[in-house]
Amino acid sequence: MTIPDVLVVDDEPQVREIVASYLEHEGFSVRTAADGTEALAELARQRADLVVLDLMLPGVDGLTVLRRLRESGDEVPVIVLSARGRESERVAGLELGADDYLAKPASPREVAARARAVLRRAKSTGPSTIEVGELMIDVGGRRLTKAGEDVDLPPKEFDLLVRLASTPGEVHSRGDLLRDVWGSSPDWQDPGTVTVHIRRLRRKLEDDPAAPNHLMTVYGVGYRFDP
C-alpha cells in the first residue's frame, strides 16, 4: 500500500510541527516548508499527493503558490489552512482551485480527516464512462472531454461532476454533496464551497454558464444534472 506524501506549508513552526506530527501518526509521509518559495521548490523537486497550505506566508503567499500550481497544470489536491476566515478569502482560495478550506485554529485531527477525505475523493475506481451530448466523462481515467476536446478539471470539480452526472435528474442538497464529495458536513465546512465549485464547472462545461443545460440549480433545495 502506497503511503500518501503530504507537504505541510506554514510559517509558524509550532503549527507546522503539530500538523506534521499528527499526520505522521495517522500514517502519512510528511514534508514541510516554511514559506511559499520553499514550498514551490519542494514541489518542483518531488510532487506531493496532497498539500496543506497556509495563506499568510512571508514573501510568496499561499494564494500565489496555489495560483502558480494551477497555472502550471499541477492538479495536486490542496487543503487551505488559514487564519483568514472571511468569506471573500475562502472563495478566492476555492476559485483558484483549492479542494478544501479550514480556518485556524483547526484541530490536527480534523486536518487528518480532511486529508483522508480529499485523497479518497481524488482517487477513482472502475472503468465506467458517462456520455451526455458532447460531454464524455471517463470516470476510471479521470478525464473529461467536450466535443472531443479535453477539459482540465481539478480533482474536486471532477468528483463533484461525477457525483451529479452519475445520478441524472436526482436533486442533491449542498449538505449531501459536502458529505459525498468532500467527506465533511455543513457543520465542518461552508456549504458555499459547493456553490463555488458548481460555478466553476459551469464556466467549463456549459455553452452559456448563465443559462446552463446540465448543471441545474433547484432553488431552496440543491443541484441536479440534466442529461
Fold topology:
Layout: E1 5-9, H1 13-25, E2 29-33, H2 36-45, E3 50-53, H3 62-71, E4 78-82, H4 87-95, E5 100-103, H5 108-122, E6 129-132, E7 135-138, E8 143-146, E9 149-151, H6 155-165, H7 174-182, H8 192-205, E10 215-218, E11 222-225
Parallel strand pairs: 1-2, 1-3, 3-4, 4-5
Antiparallel strand pairs: 6-7, 7-8, 8-9, 10-11
Helix pairs in contact: 1-5, 2-3, 4-8, 6-7, 6-8
What does this structure look like?
The chain has 227 residues and is of the alpha/beta class. The chain folds into two domains: 118 residues, 3-Layer(aba) Sandwich (Rossmann fold); 97 residues, Arc Repressor Mutant, subunit A. The chain contains eight helices and eleven strands. The strands form three sheets. A five-stranded parallel β-sheet has the order 2-1-3-4-5, with helices on both faces. A four-stranded antiparallel β-sheet has the order 6-7-8-9, with helices on one face. The longest helix is centred in the middle third of the chain and has 15 residues. The chain is globular. The mean pLDDT is 86.
Primary descriptors:
alpha/beta, Rossmann fold, Arc Repressor Mutant, subunit A, 5-stranded parallel β-sheet, 4-stranded antiparallel β-sheet
Mean pLDDT value = 86
User: H/E series, N to C?
Assistant: EHEHEHEHEHEEEEHHHEE
Counted beta strands:
11
Count of helix runs: 8
Q: Helical proportion?
A: 40-55%
Low-confidence stretches: none
Please summarize the sheet with the most strands: 5 strands, parallel
| Largest beta sheet: strand ordering | 2-1-3-4-5
CATH topology of the largest domain: Rossmann fold
Intertermini distance? 38 Å
For the CA atoms, what is the radius of gyration? 17 Å
